[in-house]
Design goal:
binds zinc ion
């Protein structure tokens, strides 16, 4: 049996598709607790692995190293140190901040992993690795990671 594969002799038509999708996903039991604590109590929670004792923020259901299920929640102060950052100057329609803005990895005290979030109340030309930060929560919180408006230098 032979297959007739049509030859493409013409230039293909290229269509530019601009896509914007709105959809809802469940954040799961672990994500729900994490976001509810931020929304209701302005508390950032980590979750601790029973085997290697690492504390993950944002939390996840299983330790990626031990594969153990994690269920021990740890309330963090929310304060931490900046370990990395970038300045975003190119606007993207889905990003909630106006450019230019800074986006960083914050190592919260008591956590073993870094958490990505916006930096605010900072001079974009004078951000230093290691600067101490604390979260600024929105007044109206809805159960989103953006209930943390940004992290600012802590006094
Ligand atoms: Zn572990």
């Amino acid at each position: 049996m032979s297959h007739n594969i049509p030859e493409i002799s013409e230039e293909p038509v290229i269509a530019e598709v601009v896509s914007h999708s709105n959809f809802q996903v469940s954040v799961g039991a672990t994500g729900t607790k994490f976001l509810k604590e931020i929304r209701d109590n302005k508390t950032i929670m980590g979750i601790k692995c029973p085997s290697c004792k690492k504390v993950y923020v944002p939390p996840r259901s299983h330790c990626p190293i031990c594969f153990d299920r994690m269920s021990e929640w740890v309330a963090l102060s929310g304060k931490g140190s900046l370990t990395s950052y970038t300045i975003v100057r190119y606007p993207e329609p889905y990003m909630p901040k106006k450019t230019p803005y800074a986006y960083g990895i914050i190592q919260l005290d008591g956590a073993d992993t870094g958490m990505a979030h916006f930096l605010g109340e900072v001079d974009l030309d004078k951000i230093e690795i290691g600067v101490r930060l604390e979260p600024v929560f929105k007044e109206e919180r809805e159960g989103s990671i953006l209930d943390i408006d940004y992290f600012k230098p802590s006094s």
